[in-house]
Amino acid sequence: MSPIVISARNLTKSYRNGQVKNLALRGVSLDVRAGDFLMITGRNGSGKSTFMHQVALLDRPTDGKIMMNGRDVTHLSNRARSDLRLKNIGYVFQEYALIGELTALQNVMLPRLMLGSTRDAKIAAMKLLQRVGLEKLARRTPAQLSGGEQQRVAIARALINEPRILFADEPTANLDSVASAAIMELFKSLNETEKITIVMVTHEPEELVFATRHVVFADGKVKND
């Protein structure tokens, strides 16, 4: 059996809306193993994206524990969390989150610039743009790219520091069927060929054929695994 790369135990997450306390997560325990292509589904408000934000270290749980590769990362400082994300985690956002003033190449380079030289970052970024079929569009800004092209730039950026875990929050939600299929085939290749562990939130039932594992969230809990 593959080793556990992420272990969440009894995660809770609450938010306050005035005097009202809302529980987004209600004691979620879930393990992610190396090589998983784990898809998470559930209705809006079920807690799936909230859960992913906790285990990807983008947010902090109200209670519970998160282990990553056997290390307790629950209470790391903000700087330590940022460093861990930079070196170990890739994250693909639904809305792409590209910087409009930068070219595709510059957007992909950004995370690598925090670890190495400009020359190294440029070489690595161009290789990834080639991998996602956008090397000829490297000098274009996000406004000059289609939604599918922007998402491929975002995926290249997420991969620039060679993470072993890739999180994707509804990465095809804003794309047409052709662009969605291209993104899912790319994820399949990353998982099967490069052995990258993928955790993905989706609302699209037809994408579940790519998953090696399917977890359903409901009312802030894991309903089915």
Give a verbal description of the structure.
It is a single chain. With 225 residues, the protein is α/β, with parallel strands linked by helices. The chain contains six helices and ten strands, in the order βββαββαβαααβαβββ. The chain has helices spanning 48-55, 78-88, 104-113, 118-131, 147-159, 177-192; strands at 4-17, 20-33, 37-41, 63-68, 71-72, 89-92, 165-169, 197-201, 213-218, 221-224. The strands form two sheets. Strands 6-7-8-3-9-10 form a six-stranded mixed sheet, sandwiched between helices. Strands 2-1-4-5 form a four-stranded antiparallel sheet, covered by helices on one side. Strand 7 (165-169), helix 6 and strand 8 form a beta-alpha-beta unit. The chain starts with a strand and ends with a strand. The model has no long low-confidence stretch (mean pLDDT 94).
Task: Give the key terms.
about 220 residues, alpha/beta, 6-stranded mixed sheet, globular
Could you provide a short overview of the structure?
The relative contact order is 0.20. The longest helix is centred in the last third of the chain and has 16 residues, at 177-192. This protein is 32% helix and 29% strand.
Strand content: 25-35%
End-to-end CA span: 17 Å
Largest sheet: 6 strands, mixed
Question: How large is the count of helical segments?
Answer: 6
Low-confidence parts:
none
Judging from the principal axes of the Cα atoms, what is the shape?
Answer: globular
Rounded average pLDDT? 94
Helix content: 25-40%
List the helices and strands and how they pair.
Layout (H helix, E strand, L loop, with lengths): L3 E14 L2 E14 L3 E5 L6 H8 L7 E6 L2 E2 L5 H11 E4 L11 H10 L4 H14 L15 H13 L5 E5 L7 H16 L4 E5 L11 E6 L2 E4 L1
Parallel strand pairs: 3-8, 3-9, 6-7, 7-8
Antiparallel strand pairs: 1-2, 1-4, 4-5, 9-10
Helix pairs in contact: 3-4, 3-5, 4-5
